[in-house]
Amino acid sequence: MFRIPFLFLGIGISFFVSAQQEALGTLTGGGGQWSVIGNSAAGATCTAGDASYTFQAKEVLVKQCVGGAWKSSTETLSSWMANGKSGIAFGGAKYEVKSLPAGAPACKGSATCVRLTTVPDGKTDATRSIYLTQ
Amino acid sequence: MEETSESKGWDWAKGITPVVTVLGISVGAWQFTSQMSHESKMEFARSMYSKKLQAYEEVGRAVGDLLVVPHDEQLWIGPEDTVAFDSCLERFRTCYWGVLPLVEDSVVETAMIQFKDMARFYRRGENDYHDLAREGMALMNACNLSLQQHWNKSGKDE
Description:
The complex is a heterodimer. By secondary structure, chain A is an alpha+beta fold. Chain A has a single domain (about 5-135), classed as Lipocalin (Beta Barrel), CATH 2.40.128. Chain A is built from one helix and nine strands. In chain A, strands 4-3-2-1-9-8-7-6-5 form a nine-stranded antiparallel β-sheet, with helices on one face. Chain A is elongated, with a radius of gyration of 17 Å. The termini of chain A are far apart. By secondary structure, chain B is an all-alpha fold. Chain B has two domains: about 1-35; about 45-155, IL-4 antagonist (De novo design) like domain (Four Helix Bundle (Hemerythrin (Met), subunit A), Up-down Bundle). Chain B contains four helices and no strands. Chain B has helices spanning about 1-70, 80-105, 105-125, 130-155. In chain B, about 25% of the residues are buried. The model of chain B has no long low-confidence stretch (mean pLDDT about 85). The chains are: A alpha+beta, B mainly alpha. The interface of A and B includes residues 83, 98 and 106 of A.
């Protein structure tokens, strides 16, 4: 009697888990270190906008340029799913993760290119996109 | 002695009649006022529903216009479609700023922001047509749900 509802529940859960694993798998794969496209992620000095993200299973190491010097912080990484969408969350923001085709202008020729787009939080109409490459 | 008690009883009745009359008039007036207030609230809810419906129809047209620009629903935007697409995106943005303050529905607002972003991503060649169409459907579903909720809320109030 309950077989069919349980079957659908199981399928739903597996879709949920697989979508989350996909986003996390993309980011944690290949060492998990990503830098913002068009900006530097190395060197002693840095300029505004330079940043790198190192994704691990449960946390993200964020390295950002603040006032010409690198500043590191560790944020807890989690996953989310709502209204048929899924993604990751860290640093107080929820992101949708999308692997982009290398031909996309924003990728600037990078073969491995990922876009993190913030989910509207209801406070502002602006969303933010971060383009990352490995 | 009997006469005194009779006259006392008569006075009592004479005194209570105006009280009952005033009470009756007051209850009637209160009923009338509350009915009028309820009617005006319902009228306001109905007019808001009508405005929402008009606004969502406008959103639907703007979404539809954007989705029919790419010829044969091609997966990636072609150079021949960019001018028309930009023009439709401009119209959607006008609708976005015109409609948003009016409807005040957070779900619709989020769906509009996400569709607006997706249209930009499609224009830049980052997302394909399927993603754009999916966001368009999500936005129209959010509008539909918002209207249903408004209608149900008005029904409950009635």
